[in-house]
Write a structure and sequence with these properties.
393 residues; 18 strands; alpha/beta; Gyrase A, domain 2; four-stranded antiparallel β-sheet; seven-stranded mixed β-sheet
Length: 393
């Protein structure tokens, strides 16, 4: 196995440096405006200078809308015109991990929600954190007497805000277990279309009391997965979001902060993990996602696994010891929690640019169908925009 820093530099991958502006410190800056206390740092101070105080603050998280997309917009675009800078997301750059960092204001090294796929060592359970479902049976974890507090160990800040707090989710996820972890039921509002969002914010901004609103938009990410980063369909959806932002920006006393959980990179090569061959090595399914994966290897098979993996996949992926990632603070600058560390395997792979790994037994669900992906360390995946639109009185 190669040296991790040498590999990342050779491939022009982003080496996470959380001393630079990042999404966790962005969250801390916003929450601190509403009475939440954090240990101050230079990043929080910079965000405080960039984000004006206003009666109402709206954070828009547009899934998959990395800086690479914003930079392709026309120069007169409301999003491009108001982009203040690029910031870094957390690693792994995948939705379940990043959204948990956003609402808890902690790094993955603390909260331990690693991605679309997770493994819980204490419960010996392969599961989907966002879906709150068992990976093998697809049944809710509740059916196995597993409570959300068994999975989400760090509380969401959105349940502790000292002002009126609104969380706007698409109607199909508004009542999910994950949404309940994010915010109290009385603070969540379901929308079915962009008109619902505009109506809600218009009424909200007419109130006298201060408010914080978190709006989650899942659409760009879904389209990129199916069509690719550069597709016209992706661009069309981004234009719809621009129109939404323009309408929202008409509200007085409103500051809009627009960012993403991650970007995506175009996929040209499908890699299939040979479960028939590798199953004997595993004590749990590979976790995280399709760009970055964690492997849980039985002690007696470690040497054989490494040898076979590098023989089979070295042209498409790099394999590292998990300890190397931890030593390089890839998962955050906070001390690694016992929970977070226990839910990772012994090895981690990263796909080379343009490739993704189908590390699921249902191969045909994904083969040839993924045109864009994330969870890796390319600039397209890790770099996200900070866009600020401020409407004064």
């Amino acid at each position: 196995m190669e040296n991790i820093k040498e590999v990342l530099e050779k491939n022009n991958f982003v080496i996470p440096n959380y001393k630079n502006l990042n999404i966790v410190d962005l969250a801390k800056s916003i929450y601190s405006k509403f009475g939440i206390k954090f240990k101050n740092n230079s990043n929080i101070e910079k965000f405080n200078q960039l984000i004006p105080n206003n009666k109402h603050i709206l954070l828009i998280l547009s899934d998959g809308t990395g800086s690479n997309l914003i930079d392709k917009l026309p120069d007169d675009s409301i999003l491009k015109t108001n982009k203040k800078c690029d910031i870094m997301t957390v690693f792994p750059s995948t939705t379940g991990c990043v959204l948990t960092s956003l609402v808890t204001a902690t790094y993955p090294s603390t909260h331990g929600i690693w991605g679309w796929f997770n493994y819980n060592r204490d419960l010996n359970r392969d599961y989907y954190p966002v879906l709150f479902a068992d990976r093998k049976t697809k049944k809710s974890l509740n059916e196995f007497n597993i409570d959300s507090k068994d999975i989400f160990k760090i509380d969401s800040i959105l349940k502790k805000m000292s002002v009126k707090t609104n969380i706007l989710f698409p109607d199909y996820i508004n009542d999910s277990v994950y949404s309940n972890f994010v915010a109290n039921k009385e603070d969540r509002y379901a929308y079915t279309n962009f008109d619902d969002i505009v109506k809600f914010m218009t009424l909200n901004c007419q109130t006298n009391s201060k408010s914080y609103t978190y709006l989650y938009l899942p659409y760009v990410d879904d389209i990129e997965h199916n069509n690719g980063v550069d597709s016209q369909t992706t661009l069309n959806k981004l234009k719809e979001i621009e129109k939404l932002v323009e309408k929202l920006s008409d509200n007085k006393d409103l500051t809009i902060v627009f960012t993403a959980d991650h970007g995506q990179t175009n996929i040209t090569k499908d890699i299939i993990l040979d479960f028939k061959k590798y199953e004997k090595y595993f004590y749990a399914y590979p976790s995280i996602d399709f760009g970055t994966a964690s492997y849980y290897i039985k002690k007696e098979y470690i040497e054989e696994f490494v040898k076979e993996f590098e023989k089979d996949y070295s042209e498409s992926m790099y394999l590292f010891k998990t300890e190397d990632f931890i030593k390089e603070n890839m998962f955050g600058i906070e001390k690694m929690s016992i929970y977070a560390k226990s839910n990772l395997g012994e090895y981690i792979s990263i796909c080379k640019k343009g490739s993704y790994l189908i590390n699921d037994t249902n191969i045909m669900e994904y083969y040839g169908k993924i045109k864009g992906n994330h969870s890796g360390l390319t600039k397209d995946e890790m770099e996200i925009p900070l866009i600020i639109i401020n409407k004064e009185n």
